[in-house]
Amino acid sequence: AAKAEKSENPEHGLRKWQKKALRAGKPIETESEEEQGPAKKARVDPKVLVPISPACCTAAKAAEAPQAPTPAPAEASSAAEPAGPGKKIAKRELRLKLAQEKQHLGLYSDTEPILLVGEGNFSFARALCRQLKSGKGVYATAFDNEAALNRKYLDAADCRKEIEEQFGGTTLVGVDASKIHKVKEFRGSFRKIVWNFPHIGSGETDVEKSIENHRKLLAGFFASAVQCLDPAQECHIHLAIKGGEPYKSWKVMQIAKAAAPELVLENAVSFALGAWPGYAHRRTIGFNEKFSKKDSEELAKGAKVYIFVRPKAEAESADEGDEGSEE
Asked: Which stretches does the entry tag as region Disordered (predicted)?
């Protein structure tokens, strides 16, 4: 019954001012959320409140703070280039490489007759003709006869054909580099004589004996080559040798001085493989798929071209001496 009374009582649950308004016959108005203010808002159960850590507050403030603009990504090319000291070293090495190639190329000219000996597959002679854009003054020789040459070097025929037909050069086979003066047409005819990477190729396993054999080979070459230089001109003999042993033990300078005293070492420059596109170093025994590519790459590791000069004055005095002996 008590519950029924409460439910029937129209003032039940009303506030005092609402009851007064009801009794006065005025319409009851509820306060808006704005009029109630923060103090009159619905209460929150303290049991469901979650404590906020200082880290969360810091993160929230950081999120509200204005963000700095994201830097634009660097270009791919700049990322690929070496930075700092590495970039400087790379540039310095490139400059050195280009300078060495220019120096090696500058040794030869199409205005002077050049004799190449020990050519193997004739790829250096072909590269020289390509760079000079002419082969009219180029005479390239190989030790092997025709049959042996074609058997050992499959690319030799193509190289010779290009040298002769496209550039007007001359190729000869069966020429011993230590006896080139025996070719009558060669005597006193050249301003430059070039032998790149001489090697007997005998397969001698005794290192000391092999060194001695190569010294004899070089002595024969120098003694023969000076007889093929133009007596009226300053002339040069170029000998390219790999770096390190056993080549160092060949004692190239001492052998040259003993075999041809009129020769003077003028310079020694790096053999710049990049200066001669198409040149492929070959062993005396012939092409070998396993070793030949590696052999060419080794030329970039310390190989030198020793440049010996036979001064014009020496040539004139030698001629005078010959005339005196004939009398």
From this structure: 1-46, 67-87
| Residue span of the structural domain in which 216 resides | 111-326
- Is 319 inside any structural domain? yes
* Sequential DSSP letters for 149-213: HHHH-TTHHHHHHIIIIIT--EEEES--GGGGGGSGGGTT-BSEEEEES---------HHHHHHH
The kind and range of the H/E element at 258 are helix 252-259
pTM, two decimals, is 0.68
Structurally, how many domains does the chain consist of?
A: 1
Q: Tokens representing 245?
A: 């042993």
Collapse the DSSP code of 48 into the 3-class scheme (helix H, G, I; strand E, B; otherwise coil) and give the result: helix
Nearest to 230 by CA among 184, 187, 176: 187
Within-domain flag for 241: yes
Residues 30-64: tens digit of each pLDDT: 554 444 444 444 454 554 444 555 555 555 555 55
Cβ partners under 8 Å of residue 231, min gap 6? 188, 315, 316, 318, 319
